[in-house]
Specification:
The complex is a heterodimer of chains A (about 425) and B (about 325).
Chain A: H1 2-16, E1 40-46, H2 53-62, H3 64-67, E2 71-77, H4 80-93, E3 100-104, H5 107-113, H6 134-138, E4 141-142, E5 145-146, E6 149-154, E7 157-161, H7 162-168, H8 176-190, E8 195-196, H9 206-211, E9 217-218, E10 223-224, H10 229-243, E11 247-248, H11 254-263, E12 269-272, H12 277-281, E13 292-296, E14 309-315, H13 322-332, H14 335-345, H15 358-361, H16 364-375, H17 389-400, H18 406-420
Parallel strand pairs in A: 1-2, 1-3, 8-11, 8-12
Antiparallel strand pairs in A: 3-14, 4-5, 6-14, 7-12, 7-13, 9-10
Chain B: H1 6-15, H2 17-24, H3 29-68, E1 80-82, E2 85-87, H4 97-104, H5 106-137, H6 144-156, H7 159-170, H8 176-183, H9 195-223, H10 227-235, H11 240-268, H12 271-277, H13 289-299, H14 305-332
Antiparallel strand pairs in B: 1-2
Helix pairs in contact in B: 3-14, 5-9, 5-11, 6-9, 7-12, 9-11, 11-14, 13-14
The chains are: A alpha/beta (about 425), B mainly alpha (about 325).
Chain lengths: ~425, ~325
C-alpha cells in the first residue's frame, strides 16, 4: 500500500493535523521596570485599512518611543478579515501572539471568554476611564471585568458621489423605496448602477435587517430572532435590491471591488463606515473632498438603524511585557492620540473630551457620524457575538446569488445560531 | 495454500508480500525474527531514524486526529497555555457521535457530492488534455522543446501565485477576462460570483495547473513504447486511431494508472485552488471536503476541532477505499501492481 501511505500523508497534512502552526516571531525581550522605567518590546497587531489608515497608526504607535525611550514598538498590520483567527491561533499555542491587539468590539468578549486577554482594571491602561463614551466602553466589559480600552467607535452611513447625483438629478434616498427609484434614475441617466452592496460580508446586511425591525438575537430573552418574520423580510429586501438592479454585489473580493468602483465613480452609492473615509478620499473622484456626500442609511419598513461597531485595544494575557503593554494601550487611546487620529483619518474618538477639540469639532465626517453612532443599534456583548457572522454570511451570500430563498436562508441561519447558543429559543 | 493455479499465485505474490512472508515463516516465527535482527541489525539501525521521524510527523497527528474525532473538543474546552496561565482540557469522549452526525446530516453528503464531481471532472479533463498534448509533443515538430518548456510553465510557478493571478483575471469588473469579452461585445461573466460559473472556474484553474504533470508523465510513457510496433502496425494496415487504441493506450497503461491514482488523490484534496479562489463560496457552492474541514477548524467560531477531525478521518477512509478498489479492479484486469 505505498499509495495508501501517500494518501495518509496528504490527508494527515491537510485534514487531520491540528498541530498548531505556531511561529516564534514576535517574541519579546522581557521588559523590566527596575528604576521605574519601562523597557523591552511591545508588538502591536493593527487591523486598519492598508494604504491609508495604517500609515498614520504606524507613525503614532512608533512615537510611543518618544515618551518611553527604552521601549521599542513593533507595528504589525494584520488584515482585518484574518486577524480574529490569527490571534486565536497564536494565543492558544502561546507563541507568536502580539502583546497588544486591536480587537473589534465583537471579538473582545470572545477573546476574554477564552482566557486570552489580561484584565485591565486597576492598571494604567484605563487612565481617565470615566471620559470614555458609555457605548464604547460597553463592549470592553465581560463578567464584571474590563478587557479592552476603546480606541475608535463607528457606525454606518450611505456614502454618495455628489457629481453623479447631480448628473442624474436625484436626491439622497431616505428610505429603501426611495433608494430603488433613485438607483433606477441613476442607471437610466448615467448607465451606472446605483448602490454597491457587499455580498461577501454580512456586516453590510445588518442595517437592512434592523430597518425591518429584525435583529440577530435577543440576548435578554435568550431568543434567536434572525429567522422571525422581520428577519426574513430583511433577507427579502436585500435580495430585491440586487434582483431589481438597484444594487450591485459580488460574492468575492467585496471590499476591494466596492472601494474601486466607488472611488472611480463607477457606482453612485455605497454603505460604509468612518473606516472607509480616508481610503475613499484617496480615489480620483474625491480629489475634491466636497464631492463625497454622506447620509444616514435608508430606512426600512420598521425604522432606520445601523450597527454600532468599533475597536478596542486589548492586552494579551501571555504578554511578557505587561507593564509596557498597559502603557501602550493607554497611550494609543489618550486624548492627544485620538485627536491626531481623528484629524488625519476622520475616525471617531471614544473619549468625550476629544470631540470638543477644534480640529475634531469641525471635521465634517465626524460631525455626521457622531449622532449616527448615538442612535446606532448596539449588539449584545456576549462571547458568541463574534461567532454569529460565519453562519450568517454563508446564507446571506446564498440568498443573494439565488442558491436559496430568503425564508430558507433565514431559517438555516437561525438553526445554526441555536446550535451555537445552547438552550436558547 | 498459495498454489491453486499458476495465475493466482502470481497475483498473490505480486500484490500481497505481507501474507507471503507470514505464511513462509509459520514454522518458527520467533526464530525468524531473531535471525533477522542478528543478521540485519545494521539495516534496522539505519531505518530506525526514518521510522521515528515518520512516527512523529505522520503517526502522531494521525492518531491524535482520530482521537479528537471521538471527542467533543472545540476551542472552548481544549488545553490552552496563555503566558503563566495553563488551562487544562475539559473535553469529553463521545464515541462515534460525530460520525453519525456527519453521515446522517446532509452537509457532509452534499459536500461529498460536489467533491466527487470536482475530482472526476478535473482528473478526466486533465488526463485527456495531457494525453493529447503528450501525443502532439511526441512527434518531431519545429520548436518542440520550446513548446514543452511553455507547457511546463504552470507547474514551475508556485501554485498560490498562479491561483492569485487567476483570481485577478476572473474579477468581474476589473478582470482581464471580462475586459477581453467586453471587447468582443460579450456581457461580463460572473466567474466567481455565480454558483455554477464558480464551479466551472475552479475546475478550469485546476485543469490548467494539473496538465503539465500529466503531460510530462505521459510523454515519458510514450517514449518508452518502441517505434517498431507502430511500424509493424502500419505494415499491417492499421490506421492512426487503431494504432492509438491498440498500441499507445496499452503501452501507456502502467504510467496512466499511476498518474490517475495520484491525480485523483491530489485533486480530491486540492486545498489551495478552492481556498484561494473562492474560499468555498459563493455560499458553499465550491466547498470541497478538505476546505470545509479547514473551515470547521480555523474559520468558524468556536472552532470545532472534533468535527474537523471527523471529516479528516472520513476523507482518509474514502481515499483508502478508493485506492483499494482501484487496485483490485486493476488486478482483475491482469495488471501487476
Amino acid at each position: 500500500m505505498r499509495r495508501g501511505i501517500a494518501a495518509t500523508a496528504l490527508v494527515a497534512a491537510l485534514g487531520v493535523t491540528l498541530a498548531a502552526c505556531g511561529s516564534d516571531s514576535g517574541s519579546n525581550d522581557g521588559g523590566s521596570k527596575s528604576s521605574g522605567e519601562l523597557s523591552g518590546t511591545v508588538t502591536w497587531w493593527d487591523t486598519s485599512t492598508v494604504g491609508s489608515e495604517d500609515k498614520v497608526f504606524k507613525k503614532v504607535a512608533e512615537d510611543f518611543k518618544k515618551k518611553h525611550p527604552k521601549v521599542t514598538v513593533k507595528y504589525v498590520n494584520v488584515p482585518f478579515g484574518e486577524a480574529q483567527n490569527k490571534f486565536k491561533n497564536a494565543a492558544q499555542s502561546g507563541s507568536g501572539a502580539p502583546d497588544v491587539i486591536r480587537s473589534e468590539v465583537a471579538w473582545t468578549p470572545e477573546f476574554a471568554d477564552l482566557g486570552y486577554l489580561a484584565p485591565l482594571d486597576g492598571t494604567p491602561a484605563l487612565k481617565n476611564s470615566e471620559d470614555f463614551l458609555k457605548q464604547a466602553a460597553a463592549s470592553t466589559q465581560y463578567k464584571g471585568k474590563t478587557y479592552g480600552v476603546p480606541q475608535v467607535i463607528d457606525s454606518m452611513g450611505i456614502f454618495y458621489n455628489k457629481k453623479i447625483f447631480k448628473e442624474a438629478g436625484v436626491e439622497v434616498p431616505k428610505t429603501i423605496a426611495e433608494l430603488k427609484t433613485a438607483s433606477a434614475k441613476i442607471k437610466q441617466k448615467t448607465g451606472k448602477p446605483g448602490l454597491y452592496l457587499r455580498g461577501d460580508d454580512a456586516y453590510w446586511f445588518l442595517s437592512f435587517l434592523y430597518g425591518e425591525g429584525g435583529d440577530l438575537v435577543d440576548a435578554e430573552k435568550k431568543t434567536v430572532t434572525v429567522d422571525n418574520a422581520a428577519g426574513v423580510k430583511g433577507f427579502k429586501v436585500v435580495k430585491d435590491l440586487v434582483d431589481s438592479g438597484a444594487a450591485k454585489t459580488d460574492a468575492t473580493d467585496g471590499w476591494n471591488n466596492m472601494q474601486t468602483a466607488f472611488k472611480d465613480g463607477k457606482v453612485a452609492m455605497m454603505i460604509n463606515g468612518p473606516w472607509a473615509v480616508a481610503d475613499t478620499y484617496a480615489g480620483k473622484e474625491f480629489k475634491d473632498k466636497t464631492n463625497l456626500g454622506i447620509a444616514p442609511v435608508p430606512a426600512g419598513s420598521a425604522g432606520q438603524g445601523a450597527p454600532q461597531g468599533g475597536h478596542n485595544l486589548a492586552v494579551y494575557a501571555g504578554s511578557k511585557n505587561l507593564d509596557a503593554s498597559y502603557a501602550f494601550a493607554e497611550y494609543m487611546t489618550s486624548v492627544e492620540t485620538q485627536a491626531t487620529v481623528a484629524k488625519e483619518l476622520s475616525l471617531l474618538p471614544t473619549r468625550e473630551s476629544v470631540y470638543i477639540k477644534p480640529d475634531v469639532a469641525t471635521n465634517e465626517m465626524i460631525g455626521f457620524f457622531k449622532p449616527v453612532v448615538e442612535k446606532a443599534v448596539e449588539r449584545p456583548w456576549i462571547p458568541e457575538t463574534g461567532s454569529l457572522f460565519a453562519p450568517l454570511v454563508t446564507e446571506y451570500t446564498k440568498v443573494l446569488t439565488g442558491q436559496t430563498s430568503p425564508d430558507a436562508g433565514a431559517k438555516a441561519t437561525g438553526d445554526a445560531y441555536r446550535k451555537l447558543l445552547k438552550d436558547w429559543k | 495454500m498459495a498454489v491453486d493455479t499458476p495465475s493466482q499465485s502470481v497475483a498473490k505474490a505480486a500484490g500481497d508480500s505481507v501474507a507471503r512472508g507470514r505464511s513462509r515463516g509459520t514454522g518458527k516465527p520467533r526464530g525468524a525474527a531473531k535471525r533477522s535482527l542478528s543478521t540485519h541489525w545494521y539495516a534496522w539501525a539505519m531505518v530506525a531514524p526514518v521510522i521515528l521521524v515518520i512516527a512523529v510527523i505522520i503517526g502522531y497527528p494521525l492518531i491524535r486526529g482520530i482521537y479528537l474525532s471521538l471527542t467533543d473538543a472545540n476551542e472552548r474546552n481544549v488545553a490552552r497555555s496563555i503566558g503563566v496561565n495553563e488551562i487544562p482540557a475539559t473535553y469529553e469522549f463521545v464515541g462515534l457521535d460525530n460520525y453519525t452526525e456527519a453521515l446522517t446530516g446532509n452537509q457532509f453528503l452534499a459536500t461529498l457530492g460536489w467533491t466527487l464531481v470536482w475530482t472526476v471532472s478535473c482528473v478526466a479533463l486533465t488526463f485527456a488534455l495531457g494525453l493529447a498534448l503528450a501525443n502532439i509533443l511526441n512527434r518531431k515538430i519545429a520548436g518542440r522543446s520550446a513548446y514543452r518548456l511553455l507547457l511546463i510553465l504552470p507547474w514551475a510557478v508556485p501554485g498560490f501565485v498562479s491561483v492569485f493571478a487567476w483570481r485577478f483575471l476572473y474579477n468581474q469588473d476589473n478582470g482581464l477576462l471580462n475586459k477581453l469579452l467586453a471587447g468582443g461585445g460579450i456581457d461580463a461573466v460572473p466567474w466567481l460570483n455565480d454558483p455554477t460559473w464558480a464551479k466551472f472556474s475552479v475546475i478550469l484553474v485546476n485543469v490548467w495547473l494539473g496538465v503539465p504533470f500529466m503531460m510530462v508523465a505521459l510523454l515519458g510513457g510514450l517514449q518508452s513504447i518502441p517505434g517498431e510496433m507502430y511500424e509493424a502496425a502500419e505494415m499491417d494496415g492499421a490506421n492512426a486511431w487503431q494504432r492509438f487504441r491498440h498500441i499507445t493506450m496499452p503501452g501507456l497503461r502502467s504510467v496512466s494508472t499511476t498518474v490517475i491514482l495520484l491525480s485523483t488523490i491530489w485533486t480530491f484534496n486540492m486545498f489551495p485552488v478552492i481556498f484561494l479562489l473562492t474560499r468555498g463560496g459563493p455560499g458553499e457552492a465550491t466547498q470541497i471536503l478538505v476546505t470545509q474541514a479547514y473551515k470547521f477548524s480555523f474559520e468558524v467560531s468556536p472552532r470545532d476541532f472534533a468535527q474537523s477531525s471527523t471529516w479528516g478521518v472520513l476523507i482518509l477512509v474514502l481515499l483508502m477505499l478508493f485506492a483499494a478498489v482501484y487496485r483490485r479492479v486493476l488486478r482483475k484486469q491482469g495488471e501487476v501492481w
